[in-house]
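Same chain as my last thread, 496 residues:
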Amino acid sequence: MALKPAEKPRDDEDELDELPPIDGDGEAGDEPEAGPEDLDEETADAGDPLDDSTGEDDPIDEIDVDESEAGWLDDADEDEALDVGAPDALGEEAENGALLEGAEETDVGEDDLTVGLEEETLVGDAGEEGFVDEDEALREEDLPRLDSGDDDTEADDADLGEGLPDEDAPDESLPPWDDRAWDRVEGAAGGTTEPVAAVTALACAESDLFVAGEGIARIDREGNVTALEALGLRGGAPASIVAAREWLALSTPRAGVLVSHDAGRSFAGANDWRACVAPEDAARGQQITALTSLALCGEDLWGCTRGGALVWSADRGATWTRVASEHPIDAISADAATGELVGLSHGEAGSRTIVRGRRGQLASSPCGHLPGSQILSLAASGGSIAVAFANLGAFRLGDAGEWSRLEGTASVTAISHAPGGTVVVALCSEGEGRAWIVEARGGDGPARIVAELGDAPSNHEDEGDLRVRALAWDDSRGVMWAAGAFGLVALRPARR
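reply #2:
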């Protein structure tokens, strides 16, 4: 087998022929086009590469413009609806810049500059489109009032909210719970057989309970609720009501005193008292359209105005007499145990005086100091006296003639008495949506929570308002009535 001759080893000095271009054009041996190195040589004379001038000094080259487009703005019509540029009233001042003559820097600071111009200016607002027609201009009277969402009229029952605790009331720990809570009763056991609408005032008359609010209703001993016809009832929700058998009297914010002699079927005005107090209360700038509170002591009917005037009627409201007092009366209450009126007046330097009235005559005796705030409620029973101040708490008068505060009662909304000198206070927390009944037994007993009204039944639209507006002890049933926007609740002390 013949062997293949050995290949000649490659010499490094041997050079390969040039390869043809990749694109196949040209032939081997043609000179290549200029490369990047050649371009650098060609641009070497273009200028200094470190020169950072922007060419603003270079001559401007003329641009050829097609004369066919020279008049593209010639046929543009002026839009009269646009307010652009300076008005004609400026004349030549707008062209020669005379408007800026005399302009000097102001001496006022930045805080003194106002956003709007108080005086009319001749300078137009260039670049802003105006209204097409003059009557389309925005006028001040076309703008809504800033307070258009508020009610311009005063609520009919505005007085009912006075003195009630607000969200800014001081925080205070509630009293501790008593070892025995009060029971809630219903129906023949001492309560009502059906829910009652919102109640603003209530009064006990022997075995009947009269409640006032959106209307008048009577609750008998078996707990049956009867809505009264109440013809002639007007003037807003009653702020106070008193009753004796078939006779009723109540005070409304606008209609004043209304009296019924037929157990609430009809009412008539009994406002001759206004003539007795008009000069005094008018001098103090007080409204005298209504008596803020009524008190019935036997045959005596008493009333107190917002300005502190005290009036008395010996014939159940047919005629009235002004009762003179040394100081204005802040609040009144009937003491059912003694059959006399009890009132609290204020003098100079925060001094207080207790007044007691019978048959139109007053007797006064000084007592200790109390806060100067407006009194929310006053309660008296068998010589025991207690008073409530909104956002401050409840105070009671001790045997030594000094006032003591019931701790934990800053959120008080109503106050009353139970037998044995027991003080009953209603508390409320709007933030928590809860209300409590507090009892302070005896003359110096501490305050203790005995009931909570967080789940009080209600058929009223404002079910969330659990504030107790009125408390009244019903001796015939042996229960304490608590009334408010939630309706009516009967509570029986555990020790009875």
